[in-house]
Specification:
By secondary structure, this protein is α/β, with parallel strands linked by helices. It has two domains: 144 residues, Rossmann fold (3-Layer(aba) Sandwich); 68 residues, Alpha-Beta Plaits (2-Layer Sandwich). The chain is built from six helices and 13 strands. The strands form three sheets. It has a six-stranded mixed sheet with strand order 2-1-3-6-12-13, with helices on both faces. A four-stranded antiparallel sheet has the order 8-9-7-10. Strand 1, helix 2 and strand 2 form a beta-alpha-beta unit. The protein is globular. The structure holds ribulose-5-phosphate. The site of ribulose-5-phosphate has 17 residues, from helix 2 and helix 4. The site of ribulose-5-phosphate (5RP) has 17 residues, from helix 2 and helix 4.
C-alpha cells in the first residue's frame, strides 16, 4: 500500500465512524492520525447539520484537535458513561484483540473504552494481523520503572524505555508516567498476557485491549470504501 493509499484508507475509516455518531451522543475521542479524520468529519457535521455532541478526549493532542474542529468537550467526570468511543489501533487480530499505545495515550484510551457502550476502532488494512506481535506499550509509574522492567522481562519481554523525539530523555505521558515498549514476539494468549502485566505493581496499564471485543466494531478503511468487522 502506498503512503497516499494509507492516508486515504485512514480517511475513509474515520469518516465512516463519524457517520455512525448520532445527535445528542457523548463520544470518546481517541488519539492518532486515523481518529483525527473522524473528528474532522464530526466538526463538519456540527457546522453543517447542527449535530450536537459532547467529546471526551483521551489526550492533550485529541483535545487540541477537537477544539480545532469545533467539537465541544467534557470529561469522564461529567460523562462516566459514554454512548460511543472512536479510537485507532496499532494491531487488530481476528478475535478483535488490540494492541494500542503508539501515541502513549493507552491509559486514558482504556478508561474511555471501558466507559463506552460501543467502541469503533478505525484502522487501515496494514493493522489487521493474524497474530498480535507488535511491542506492547506499558505505562509505568516512574518510581517503579526498574522493578516493573524486571518483572516484564520475567514474562518474556525485552522492555525498552521509550525516548522522546525533540525532547531529551524518556517520553512522559499526559499522566506524568513513563512508557516501556515490550517486545514479546508472537502473542499466543493476549488475554493472559494482559492479566499478567496488570498484576505488576507500578505497571499502570498496558496497550493490550482484550476485554472489549463484544462492544468493538472495527472499521477497516480501504482506498475506496470500508470493511466492517464485529463479533456481534
Ligand atoms: C495512541 C493509539 C493510536 O490510536 C494508535 O497508535 C493508532 O494511531 P494511528 O491511527 O495514527 O495509526 O493507540 O496511543
Amino acid at each position: 500500500m502506498t503512503a497516499a493509499g494509507q492516508v486515504e484508507s485512514k480517511r475513509n475509516a474515520g469518516y465512516r465512524a463519524a457517520a455512525m455518531v448520532e445527535d445528542g451522543m457523548a463520544v470518546g475521542l481517541g488519539t492518532g492520525s486515523t481518529v483525527f479524520f473522524a473528528m474532522e468529519r464530526l466538526g463538519e457535521r456540527i457546522a453543517r447539520e447542527g449535530l450536537r455532541i459532547t467529546g471526551v478526549p483521551t489526550s492533550y493532542q485529541a483535545a487540541i484537535r477537537a477544539r480545532r474542529y469545533g467539537i465541544p468537550l467534557s470529561s469522564l467526570d461529567e460523562h462516566p458513561e459514554l454512548d460511543i468511543a472512536i479510537d485507532g489501533a496499532d494491531q487488530v487480530d481476528p478475535g478483535l484483540n488490540l494492541i494500542k499505545g503508539r501515541g502513549a495515550a493507552l491509559l486514558r484510551e482504556k478508561c474511555v473504552c471501558d466507559a463506552a457502550r460501543e467502541v469503533l476502532i478505525v484502522v487501515d488494512p496494514t493493522k489487521m494481523v493474524d497474530t498480535l506481535n507488535a511491542p506492547v506499550p506499558v505505562e509505568v509509574l516512574p518510581f517503579g520503572v526498574a522493578g516493573v522492567s524486571r518483572r516484564l522481562s520475567l514474562l518474556g519481554a525485552a522492555p525498552v524505555l521509550r525516548e522522546g523525539v525533540k525532547k531529551d530523555g524518556p517520553v512522559v505521558t499526559d499522566n506524568g508516567n513513563f512508557i516501556l515498549d515490550c517486545g514479546f514476539g508472537a502473542i499466543g494468549e493476549p488475554r493472559d498476557l494482559e492479566a499478567a502485566i496488570a498484576a505488576i505493581p507500578g505497571a499502570l496499564e498496558c496497550g493490550l485491549f482484550t476485554a472489549y471485543k463484544e462492544k468493538i466494531t472495527v472499521i477497516v478503511g480501504e482506498e475506496t470504501g470500508c470493511r466492517v468487522v464485529s463479533l456481534h
